[in-house]
Amino acid sequence: MLSGKVILVVDDEPDILETVKEILEQCQVETAGSFASAQTLLETRSYDMAVLDIMGVKGVELLQVAVGKQIPSVMLTAPALTPDYILKCMELGATSYLPKEDITQLDRLLEELFAIMASGGSARSHTMKRLELWLDEHIGHSWRDKYGKLWE
């Protein structure tokens, strides 16, 4: 499913970029370590998927560029994984979210997302089902009342 896919990975941590390249070895992975270089790549090239860090590289702004170019995007983040960020990114068109602590599962997640998108399914529903337990554990069950919009 991933063989031959062209993936842009943006993160200001070089070790994360190297880790993702290893995990996605069957893909053609291009990397950027800054907002400016990522913006240039997004505006001048075509990608099957973008994997964007939120912090350090203005990932939300890059998401807007990617969505404008119709590039599905996974938000890869550690400290910014809160209902507010999830809602903001989903409203802006993010395809999915992945906590950095789960980075070793990135290849599996991308395979699932490509399969869902190919079948016309909902990547947002997939994301929320996947994150539901994490949100319950880290934030508490009350997030569902306040952020019910995530399920629409």
TrEMBL record:
Residues 6-115 form the Response regulatory domain. Coiled coil: none annotated. It holds the Pfam family Response_reg. The keyword Cell inner membrane does not apply. SMART domains: REC. One of its GO terms (molecular function) is DNA binding. SUPFAM superfamilies: CheY-like. GO terms for biological process: phosphorelay signal transduction system. Keywords: DNA-binding, Phosphoprotein. The modification 4-aspartylphosphate is found at D53. It comes from the Bacteria. This is Response regulator with CheY-like receiver, AAA-type ATPase, and DNA-binding domains.
